[in-house]
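Quick question, first post here. What does this chain look like in 3D?
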Amino acid sequence: MATRPRVLLVDDRPENLEILAGLLEPLGYILEQARDGQEALEAALAVPPDLILMDVSMPRMDGLAACRALKTDERTALVPIVLVTGQSAREDRIRGVAAGCDDFLTKPVDAEELLARTRNLLRTKALVDELEQAENVLVSLANALEAKDNYTRGHSERVAHYAEALGAAAGLAHLELRNLKRAGLLHDIGKIGIPLAYLQKPSRLTTEEYEIVKQHPSIGFDICKPLRTMEPLLFLIRGHHERLDGRGYPDGLAGEAVSTSLRCLTVADIYDALTSDRAYRRALPPESAFKILRDEASVGMWDLRLIDLLAETLIRKF
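> Answer (accepted):
Ran it through. Tokens below.
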């Protein structure tokens, strides 16, 4: 049985909450109420609803401030928010768009307009949830793959944390950092298509075996490509073995074609690989790993500035 959508109604006037609830109750939604922006923020962060209908003018925290806070928190960033404004509140609408709201309703609320917008936004939210669930399945598959190998268990999660922290130190925007973390969790998903014996081989791979292992970024790209939510991650998943000198794989990208976010992911991936036990060698201490990275950067393989930033970031954060 499908779960009933949860709608949070936010207004400091009880009579307005009563009107909204009266219009929506016949549709079978689970309705919750909050009396100001602060109460709405606390309720939504505790248990994210599927839709928020929120007045703009309220005490303690107004609807604009609450909307801004909810849209910048990963737990509620994808929850659609409808702001309810006065007939001539043009400034509230402009500020609402800047705060990230998804739609507006004008007082007095028209019943048909309310129901139509509510149905449309809940339908969109349900599609987003399905895509997120599909992404979570891929993350679970990637974790299951790592769990089979004592040497790589936890690798993707560490890479995600390192890459996100490095991206923040490099000045990447919030959305780029979010995508970098997601890509870190999924960058090795393509290894599902590589024989486990090659991944766990305790000696050097043959040329033929190495060519097969090198296919995993392309396989990961193909696995993730059908999901629309993966579109911002595809170049990271496909490109995490590219090099600045153009001698990486699978596309031989070079120089400026390797974006800052991709450079962050690559450096984080290599650092964790060097400082983790592998079937063919023991983990290196951080200072040895950074020496290797800096030596390779000196001949054009990696971005030296990001390597130094990662060293500083690890000292501060990990």
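The radius of gyration is 24 Å.
DSSP finds 14 helices and five strands in the chain.
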